Amino acid sequence: MKYSKTIHIIFVVGIFAAANIISGQVKSNSDYENNFFSLDFEQDQIDLTEVEKYFFTTFPHNDPTLGDVVYDRVKWNNDEMIALQQNDGLYGYIKYRNDNSSFDSFRFTSKPYYNLNDEVQKILFVFKGKLPSAKGLWPAWWLNGSRQEEWLYSLDQAKVDDEILDQYSGVGEFYNTPSPVNCTDWPAAGEVDIIETINGDNIIHNTIHTCPQMCDSEWNGDGAIINCANANSIDPNAGCSGVPYKINSPEGTFACLWEGSSISFYYWEPGSDVRSEGGPLSKEPNPKMWNETNLKNHVRFLENDVECNEEIHNDWQCESCSGKDKCKFVNLKMIFNITLCGKWAGRNFDQTENSNDNCKDYIVGDGLASIDNQFMKIEYVSVSKVD
């Protein structure tokens, strides 16, 4: 779910009062670091208060991927964008706005953030549920990091959660407005895309985005070394990717195992036994017990000596990445969202030069009925330390 930064401005004036509220009261940044949790919507009685203990449920900025959606709850035209059905799941909807902004959508960002250290050497992220599938749609489950103070906050601040975020509504652009759900130093702390699929093709992509001088990668032991910025003529940070895999429907159980020098991506089809001993939804998940067929991609990271090059990299990229020459992912937060068209789904909507414009026309025209009220359903989500 890569960011788009064709313009990069450093906001020196402190993002008005809202940023001062967030950054001026930090007592300890450790309250939410490596705060492991699980939310089992299928088996436990969970209310939205419990969800909001672990997730921000609004994103008061414009879409960093240039999609045709509104994530900001202050600006939503629709009600009931988020719904919880007991013994079933947490639903996040995308709904037509009947105006020039196209659709209201949701973006959940975890309040906890995660780091590897001497005590925590492996972290497992698990999601069971269902994603929408239709032309123009771009749903994702991913991890994003930042070193910015606004990204990190104390437990005391988290108590005011979304009310504080509402004060960012209409303030600045995503590329110059850091907040607890948005960073402006991307990709200097790394991004890990666990699920991305576009335009209803039901093909799952695993991708890593970093600074050019941070990481090289080898996927699935194939011997090919790929830089994890991987700039090209179309995209200054295309990232490094594994082998895309097609599934019958974008639902089931997905997992990501983060280790010091590697990341593994797993998938189980709907109906699989994922709760038995050692399974991804068990009390003590054990990746060593998992079937090799569930492993879809494995990436090994390598240090490199690449430097930002003004001919192939953008100024904002080199500025954000200055001094970031170690392959280290920092302060990763979990994100769920659905966007429309935009930088990837729009660019690949069709094979014409007007692909993104055609996508925009489609979602409010012929595709409206198939997109309106689509949803992502979260049946289970967890983050755990594993041995």
Question: Would you kindly provide a written description of the structure presented here, covering whatever features stand out?
Answer:
The protein has helices spanning 16-23, 48-54, 155-158, 161-166, 315-320, 342-346, 355-363, 368-371, and strands at residues 37-40, 55-56, 69-70, 82-85, 89-96, 103-104, 107-110, 122-130, 137-144, 191-196, 203-204, 207-209, 216-219, 225-227, 240-241, 245-246, 251-259, 262-268, 295-302, 333-340, 374-385. With 387 residues, the chain is of the alpha+beta class. It has a single domain (30-385), classed as Jelly Rolls. Strands 1, 3, 4, 5, 6, 8, 13, 14, 17, 18, 19 and 21 form a 12-stranded mixed beta sheet that branches. Strands 2-7-20-9-10-12-15 form a 7-stranded antiparallel beta sheet. The protein has a two-stranded antiparallel sheet with strand order 11-16.
Entry summary:
This protein has 387 residues and is an alpha+beta fold.
- Mean pLDDT across the residues is 90
Q: How many strand elements?
A: 21
Radius of gyration: 20 Å
Helix and strand content put the structural class at alpha+beta
Instruction: Please work out how many helical segments DSSP would assign.
Output: 8
Q: Return the CATH topology.
A: Jelly Rolls
What is the count of distinct domains? 1
Task: Let me know the largest β-sheet.
Answer: 12 strands, mixed
